[in-house]
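ok trying this again, last paste got cut off
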Amino acid sequence: MSPTTTLEPIVTLVTAAARPRPGEPLRLMAVHAHPDDESSKGAATMARYVAEGAEVLVVTCTGGERGDVLNPRLAHDEAVLADIAGVRRAEMAEAARILGVEQTWLGFHDSGLPEPDENGVTPPLPEGCFAILPLDEAAAPLVRLVREFRPHVMTTYDENGGYPHPDHIRTHEVSMRAFEAAGDPAQFPGTGAPWQPSKLYYHLTFHKARLVALHEASLAEGLESPYADWLANWEDKPEDVARLTTRVPCGEFFEVRDAALRAHATQVDPDGRWFHLPTDVQRRVWPTEDYQLARSLVPDVRGGDGYEDDLFAGLRVPAQAITA
């Protein structure tokens, strides 16, 4: 199966997945491109599952060394600019503490996001960066982590990376490669005993229905909507409607999400759109974080509304099995 299909369907694989045993904690692995991505995509979900006793590991593929300083208050801070990699590592550690998750680095170099010059020519990506490494070289450390941590569920980005940053697209590719190879003892020898996760999801944070709800809520609150221009330029694609398969209720953890995002002080403007709409309003109009189920080895479990409400749907051990 290609990792870059235009629309990844829900696919049930034939490989046997290891299900949780009675009394065993559920395990979630969230694979992200840069430090701060984990706090803007799926953070409240992770905080919810940590509170429920699940083990959650954030895998950060690169150090974000080529990221810009997006907080105007720090844009000219000489100490920050002199050691952006070290600053971002410290920010990541604080965000992980706030979320209550484990976190580790794959150790690859940020590819940056090259901008076209005045002639419209986009420069090549830097030598040795994450996005241009051979796929199996980039995927091998993730396969090792999957086999060590043994997640039941993985999350990553869709084939477009969520947005077309080279590192986000490569994160999708290595996640798909690891998901489909980690359970096969013939692949990636020397990286540990095989382990096959049961499900893989794409983050679907910025889909139109959610943005419309937040836009209308902003206007109803008498606030200028930070989503107006975004929606005005939105290109509707019929296939996008089918992507939304899973809505995880996690509104009570929105404050935790926001605190984790603010911990990435170089990457967010504390007065910017991420924090424009009060969290109680967000909870009321859109209390979930949303996903596309892209790979599954367990039966489809959806509610009467047609959606899953749990990344671990189909994997939870019934209470009577634990007490038997």
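PB: full thing came through this time. Confidence is low (pLDDT under 50) at residues 1-7, 319-324.
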